Amino acid sequence: MTTFETVAKLLAERIEVNLDLIHPDTPLETLGADSLSVMELIFDLEDEFKISLGDERPTLVTVQDIVNHIDKYIKLAAELQG
Amino acid sequence: MTERVVITGLGAVSALGLGAERNFAQALAGVSGIDFLELSSNRKIEGCVAAQIKFQLPELIKRAELSLFDRFAMLGWIAASEAMQQSGLTTNVRGLENTGVFWGTGFGGAQTLENAYMDLLVEGKNRVRPLSIVASMNNAPAAQIALRCGFGGTVNTYSSACVSSAQAIGEAYRHIRHGYANRILAGGSESLLTFGIVTAWESMKVLATPDKNHPEQACQPFALNRNGLVLGEGGAAVMLESLSSAQERGATILAELAGYGSSNDATHMTNPNPAGQARAMEMAIATSGLSKSDIGYINAHGAGTPAGDLTETDSIKRVFGSGANRLMISSTKSVHGHVLGAAAALEFVLTVQALRARAVPPTAFLNEPDPMCDLDFVPLHGRSNQKMVAAMSNSFAFGGSNAALIVKDFVL
């Protein structure tokens, strides 16, 4: 599963929207995901990918923003392990 | 010029069941909701009983929003929704800018907090769920109710142990009476049946020790062998309105909230004081404009502790004198346990229904009354077809706070 697919799946479950409505460029706001839902989603994604996103507070507007944020830390974790 | 305050909606959820009517029917029949405690974690507290809600709660909240809700807020929202529905008010419409929420809770989001501590201190995790604060803060139920109903008026939370929701209802009464709001959804909710908090209560040695064959009979207020209180969980709510507001929208008026009194013992953190309790009752009666002989029924605080029940017997005698002997007094905690911050609201919801039904719920399991508690505590069986025009609900708390609420028939 790609990062996007995982993000989309957990986001769909969390905010109860149809998975088909979630695309990389979909604004989170139009899906009804407010800042509190996104915070909870990030928490779940940390568990899912076994990463820690630290104290960074990025601006997350679209689904792709979340994917990029996660990918950055997956890469960082891989580098640290390597 | 003060406003009269009327009741246009009731809501309740407790170990007795879902809905105000169901709770009253069970209380009237003396059916207990008390059983052995089952903790959600894999921990056990041997021999501990509780008035725990073991049935599935209605799914009123979208799954996406569940992270915002500790169980105490969920129980609050369930009760508030019922009261709102019965009142006939519509949510999120114009004209609710002067409608508020006054809510009571003792421990707030106990389960969320305990989960966070477990994660950090036991599981060794280095983080907790991001919404732990907004889910567990004491004003979460009041805020959620206001948000979901679109109530733009004053939203207050009272946390005074076992009188929390009596203060919420009573202060709402004052608020409406003096024109600060035309409607307030008032009540309380509590859910603290967690390993840590129940253990803390146990260590105070105030919890009832049950007969293992009859856990449902563990709470025995005013009985000779009473030996403590039984913790419970639940939520209860009343929609309060100024008479003019209720009349303007053609609402069905269930009863009138006629009086409220509050006091503090200022004598001891936990030992109750009859003079302090009597002050609250006297103030409620004076505010109501009723005579003492108008009060036909008292829903007692009656938690089932040796000192508490004796003190309440004394304080009622101080207030009513020889008239105390003609009062029907019962403690419904015998069946719904002590719901702490929600107790007063739950008992007030039962008291309103007792008045309306002219039927008094019993003090269940009062087989052998304490000779020192020598008033009519309506032992064992409820009573129907009783004459009364007003009823009072008493609530007393650790910290010395006392409160009394009086409901009477609504007569234009």
Q: Whole-Å distance between the termini of chain B?
A: 17 Å
Q: N-to-C SSE series of chain B?
A: EEHEEHEHHHEHEHEHEHEHEHHEE
Low confidence ranges of chain B: none
Based on secondary structure, the structural category of chain B is: alpha/beta
**Total count of strands of chain A:** 0
Structural class of chain A: mainly alpha
**Number of DSSP helical runs of chain B:** 12
At CATH level 3, the topology of the largest domain in chain B is: Peroxisomal Thiolase, Chain A, domain 1
Q: Element order, helices and strands of chain A?
A: HHHH
Instruction: Count the E strands of chain B.
Output: 13
Number of helices of chain A: 4
* Uncertain segments of chain A: none
CATH homologous superfamily title of the largest domain in chain B: Thiolase/Chalcone synthase
Mean pLDDT of chain B: 97
Question: Mind sketching the topology for me?
Answer:
The complex is a heterodimer of chains A (82) and B (412).
Chain A (H helix, E strand, L loop, with lengths): L2 H13 L12 H4 L3 H15 L13 H19 L1
Chain B lengths: L4 E10 L2 E2 L1 H10 L5 E2 L12 E2 L20 H17 L11 E6 L5 H13 L9 H5 L3 H10 L5 E4 L5 H14 L5 E8 L4 H9 L30 E9 H6 L6 E10 L9 H15 L6 E5 L6 H15 L7 E3 L2 H4 L6 H15 L32 E7 L4 E8 L4
Helix pairs in contact in B: 1-12, 2-5, 6-12, 9-10
How does this model look, in words?
The complex is a heterodimer of chains A (82) and B (412). Chain A is an all-alpha fold and 82 residues long. Chain A has a domain at 1-52. Chain A is built from four helices and no strands. Chain B has twelve helices and 13 strands. The model of chain B has no long low-confidence stretch (mean pLDDT 97). Chain A binds chain B through residues 13-16, 32, 36-37, 39-40, 42-43, 46, and chain B through 62-64, 67-68, 127, 129-131, 134.
